[in-house]
Specification:
Largest sheet: 7 strands, mixed
Number of strands: 18
Strand content: 15-25%
CATH class of the largest domain: Alpha Beta
Radius of gyration: 21 Å
């Protein structure tokens, strides 16, 4: 089976440090958490990093710190994993779905301009499949209305905009370390910000609302959460961060192999703007109108090739359709046309592209 992705970490690379964790008996809030936070902060060139249990908890906490309350309006990219809008629902706020650019798959600036005003509490921009195209224009519009921008960069660790790492641009940025991601800690996430006031609040919220020294007694000045990453997870993340840029370079080579082979038979790659360095988190194409994406996925599986859809039209899920009846048409169209292809170190793309070409020819 040609898998969709394989992890970029081995037990051998962390064996010694893993044994040290067990020998010390300290499984949380130790040196591995500290050095992962420090190295990630330096990698992104940001002032603050908070490690979390997932991107979802990172997003949820970020909205709280931004002041989102029940009844608040929050604009959200419509094409994403449901967590992007679930965190709005969780707070009793109102998601306003923003349609996407059908080429980049990211939030449409034109649609946001039609819907955004100063009454919104936040905007959630999603770097779809790790692609931050359009981020700066969205940020500029948010600044015009003085609405904070929360970047859902679950897939975008290592991507860049004008040579700046994602994480240093929006007001707050959230990452994921899920097994499908390039940096994988099993589950996990992170919050990045250069906003000092937000950083102060994150520190307290991630410490169960406490500040001070635990040895002499903490001061609980707020309510908070235990969304903390463990020592073992932090060790995994720290180890992979060392080689992340090298991993991205190799994945981009695979991406361009796909593009060179598949565009001639009608598949269209996700557009990445010229000022963007894409981390190639997911290699996604839209299929020609003559091709049924679901049948192609099933066919590839019969050839021992794993593939999947891109992601979801949030406004088109059963829950959101029934509750809001505001389905975004570009997002809906891309949901049914996009396919994610295998990408990992050492992959030979030829069996994949050959199988896709055979299927397309059969359906012409």
């Amino acid at each position: 089976m040609i898998k969709l992705i394989k992890p970029y970490i081995s037990i051998q690379s962390i064996q010694t440090d893993l044994e040290d964790i067990f020998a010390s008996g300290q499984f949380t809030q130790g040196k591995n958490v500290q050095r992962f936070e420090t190295d990630l902060k330096n990698y992104l060139s940001v002032h603050y990093i908070g490690l979390t249990t997932s991107a979802t908890t990172a997003l949820s906490l970020s909205l709280r710190v931004m002041g989102v309350k029940p009844g608040s309006k929050v604009a959200v990219s419509d094409y994403s994993w449901p967590a992007s809008s679930n965190v709005i629902e969780e707070l009793g706020a109102i998601p306003v779905f923003i349609d996407i650019n059908p080429e980049t798959f990211n939030m449409s600036l034109d649609d946001l301009e039609k819907k955004l005003d100063a009454s919104f509490s936040a905007v959630i921009f999603v770097d779809t499949f790790g692609n931050p195209s359009g981020l700066e224009d969205i940020f500029e519009l948010c600044q015009k209305y003085k609405v904070p921008l929360l970047e859902d960069a679950a897939c975008a660790l290592g991507s860049e905009v004008n040579d700046r790492k994602v994480g240093s641009i929006a007001d707050v940025t959230c990452f994921s370390f899920h097994p499908r991601k390039l940096l994988n800690t099993g589950e996990g996430g992170a919050i990045a910000t250069n906003n000092e006031e937000y950083a102060k609040q994150f520190k307290i919220k991630l410490a169960a609302g406490a500040s001070g020294n635990a040895e002499v007694g903490l001061k609980f000045t707020d309510f908070g959460f235990n969304f903390r990453l463990t020592e073992i997870q932090s060790l995994m993340g720290w180890q992979q961060l060392k080689n992340l840029d090298e991993v991205i370079t190799k994945r981009l080579e695979i991406k361009y192999c796909y593009i060179n082979s598949l565009t001639s038979i009608g598949l269209a790659p996700q557009k990445v703007d010229t000022n963007i360095k894409h981390n190639a988190q997911s290699i996604v194409f839209t299929v020609p109108e003559t091709v049924n994406r679901n049948k192609l996925v099933k066919y590839l599986n019969s050839q021992n090739i794993e593939s999947t859809l891109g992601t979801y039209c949030l406004s088109g899920t059963s829950f959101n359709r029934d509750k809001y009846n505001d389905v975004q048409q570009n997002s809906l169209a891309i949901e049914s046309a996009a396919i994610t292809l295998p990408c990992y170190e050492g992959l030979d793309t030829k069996p994949v592209t050959k199988a896709i070409a055979n299927f397309v020819q059969q359906n012409e």
